[in-house]
Structures are given as structure tokens and as C-alpha cells.
């Protein structure tokens, strides 16, 4: 019988510890990500965002504590088709068109190609569907990578800095697409350096030096720190934790 807690919680970390090459990188992380939420993962360069995402998608070994992803262990092969992970590097074939890339990834994951056009539309690339990736701008190529993650209709989508290098209009459009996905039930974990993007999220995991400073909805972060910008809220929290 399915445990309702598992159904409502996409990711649950309990005193999670992760090391890289023997050096502890993530320390005692405890948090939950509710199903269908957009959770921002924010913090300075090197604080451990990518490491946490890699751990959630099952490619990084856990050194201590526990991590439950979609009701299972992160490395459970049964989870793989339910997860989409888009890294910072564009990971599509540059000599194939957007549609061909999406169809290839659908086939590779054993999914029907029915979703290909939907995935391409979801990232706003329908007008460019038949253009080779090498003929796209950097932001369009990033969105082509995202389309390839969407073809499998993942339950959990983990995006490493998807808005880097995007102009404000494209960034706005991408966030609208992400919100539409969440409204349809997909859980999203989205990392960013841009603190203002926290306002797009249902809640924000604020990290520093491999530790979780706070996990709060953006409005509560502002209230709690008595500030009016995410940048100031983050700086206030850093000072608080250093004190
Ligand atoms: N392959 C690796 N081997 C050893 N240590 C690593 C490796 N990759 C990252 N680290 C270390 O782990 C820590 C966390 O790195 P991580 O890439 O998770 O940070 P990040 O928050 O994603 O940074 P950025 O925002 O710059 O991408 C850093 O101290 C980094 O030097």
C-alpha cells in the first residue's frame, strides 16, 4: 500500500551527508520538497548546489543520513524514467534539430515520441523545432536540453541554473513554462545564483558552505529578515549564522 506521505513528498533529506573525493561537501541537510512545488536552490558558488542535485538524481554517493526521492532510494533504477536532470552544460546533439534531439531522447528512455512536440512547445521552441541546435542561440540551445528532459514527462525535474545567459524576456517565458509544469503536478528543484529568481519559487533552500541556512517561502524569507530584497535577505541570514 502506498504511504500518503511518500506521495505528497517528492524529496526528503534527513541529516544528509555527502563527500566528494573524501572531502565532506554537504553537512546534515534536512528538508522536504512537496510534490508539485517549485523549490529554489540558492547560494554562492561552491556551496554545494550541484552536489545536492547530483545526489538527488542518484549519481553521487551518500556518506551519511538518508535521502528519499519519489518514495525510493535515489539510485533505484525504477526512479530513472521518473527523473529529469538538466545540467549547466548543453547536452544535446548540435548537428541534430531540436525535434530530432527530443525524439532521440524519448526513444532512448523508451518513451513514445508522442510527447516530442509538447516538450518542444513547453520550452517555447516550436518555431525552431526543425532547426539544428548549432544554428540556435545559447539560450535556445539550453532550452533544447530542457525539452529533452521533458519528453519523458518526469515526475521530478532537477534543473541546474536553467536561466544562466538568458535575456529577461526568455527568462520570464521559461519561468512561466516551469510554473505550468508544476501546476500540472511536476516537482521542480531549480538552482540559481540570481536571488531575485527566488520569488518565482514556492520555497527556497538557502545554502552556504554545504549547510542549509533556511528553507522558507520567499515572502517569509523577506519577513523573517525584515528586508525587501532576496539579496539582502540572504546577506542578513549569512551574518546571523556567522554570529
Ligand atoms: N569532482 C569534484 N571533486 C571534488 N570536489 C568537488 C568536485 N566537484 C565539486 N567539488 C567541491 O564540492 C563543493 C561544492 O561544489 P558544487 O559544484 O556542488 O557547488 P555549486 O554550489 O553547485 O557551485 P556553482 O554555483 O559554482 O556551480 C565545492 O567546494 C567544490 O570545490
TrEMBL record:
Keyword DNA-binding: no
Nucleotide-binding is among the record's keywords: yes
Signal peptide residues on this chain, from the entry's feature table: none
UniProt KW keywords: ATP-binding, Nucleotide-binding
Entries under Pfam families matching the protein: ABC_tran
GO molecular function, one term: ATP binding
The protein, known as: ABC transporter ATP-binding protein
Domain ABC transporter per the UniProt entry, residue ranges: 11-234
Taxonomic path: Bacteria, Bacillati, Actinomycetota, Actinomycetes, Micrococcales
InterPro entries: AAA+_ATPase, ABC_transporter-like_ATP-bd, ABC_transporter-like_CS, P-loop_NTPase
Amino acid at each position: 500500500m502506498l504511504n500518503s506521505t511518500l506521495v505528497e513528498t517528492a524529496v526528503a533529506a534527513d541529516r544528509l551527508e555527502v563527500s566528494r573525493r573524501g572531502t565532506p561537501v554537504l553537512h546534515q541537510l534536512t528538508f522536504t520538497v512537496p510534490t508539485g512545488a517549485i523549490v529554489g536552490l540558492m547560494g554562492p558558488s561552491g556551496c554545494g548546489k550541484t552536489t545536492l542535485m547530483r545526489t538527488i538524481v542518484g549519481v553521487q554517493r551518500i556518506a551519511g543520513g538518508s535521502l528519499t526521492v519519489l518514495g525510493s532510494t535515489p539510485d533505484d533504477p525504477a526512479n530513472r524514467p521518473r527523473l529529469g536532470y538538466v545540467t549547466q552544460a548543453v547536452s544535446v546533439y548540435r548537428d541534430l534539430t531540436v525535434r530530432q534531439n527530443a525524439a532521440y531522447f524519448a526513444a532512448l528512455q523508451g518513451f513514445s515520441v508522442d510527447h516530442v512536440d509538447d516538450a518542444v512547445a513547453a520550452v517555447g521552441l516550436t518555431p525552431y523545432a526543425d532547426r539544428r541546435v548549432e544554428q540556435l542561440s545559447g539560450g535556445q540551445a539550453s532550452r533544447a536540453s530542457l525539452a529533452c528532459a521533458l519528453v519523458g514527462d518526469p515526475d521530478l525535474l532537477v534543473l541546474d541554473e536553467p536561466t544562466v545567459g538568458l535575456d529577461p524576456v526568455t527568462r520570464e517565458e521559461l519561468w512561466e513554462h516551469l510554473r505550468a509544469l508544476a501546476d500540472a503536478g511536476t516537482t521542480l528543484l531549480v538552482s540559481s545564483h540570481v536571488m531575485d529568481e527566488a520569488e518565482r519559487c514556492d520555497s527556497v533552500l538557502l545554502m552556504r558552505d554545504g549547510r542549509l541556512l533556511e528553507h522558507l517561502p520567499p515572502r517569509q524569507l523577506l519577513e523573517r529578515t525584515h528586508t525587501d530584497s532576496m539579496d539582502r535577505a540572504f546577506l542578513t541570514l549569512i551574518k546571523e549564522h556567522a554570529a
